[in-house]
Amino acid sequence: MRNGPSPRSAPPDGARALVRTAMLAAGVSSADSTLNAGSILVTMDAIEQKRPDTSPEALVRIGRIVTFGCMAFATAGTVRGLGGGRPPDLRAREDGPAGGLDGGS
After folding, report:
1. How many Å apart are CA 39 and CA 45, to the nearest integer?
2. Is residue 76, in this structure, part of any structural domain at all?
3. What pTM was estimated for this model as a whole?
């Protein structure tokens, strides 16, 4: 048996970290673009069209609120999608045998 790295060994830790960092950066960039697009959609297409006299400062404030709301909505959906709350199998166990405290009768 040979000692030392084989030709099919895993990439070095630095290369793995670089790839993970690049993937994280791409995901964050995509999320940022989506949040900006949602904010612009609401502020420019909805608010500015209905109220053309709205000041730029108010549009920026509305855009920030919309961005925060979209971010909170996406975070809540992600947490729920990743199993936030109690898993279904634990709910069944809390009900006890045969689905209830009365013994299932």
Report:
1. 10
2. yes
3. 0.56
Helix axes 56-81, 13-40, angle to 10 degrees: 130
Contacts of 13 (CB under 8 A, 6+ apart): none
> CA–CA distance from 92 to each of 8, 70, 77, 81, 99 (Å)?
47, 33, 23, 20, 7
Return the structure tokens found at 50.
């209905």
Q: Which domain holds residue 19?
A: 15-83
Domain-embedded: residue 105: no
Quote the CA–CA distance of 15 and 5 in Å, as a whole number: 16
Query: Can you list the alpha helix ranges (DSSP code H) found in 1-105?
Result: 13-40, 48-50, 56-81, 88-94
Cα 13 from Cα 20, distance rounded (Å): 11
**59 and 48 Cβ atoms separated by less than 8 Å:** yes
| Per-residue pLDDT tens over the stretch 36-82 | 898 998 888 888 889 989 899 999 999 999 999 988 988 887 777 76
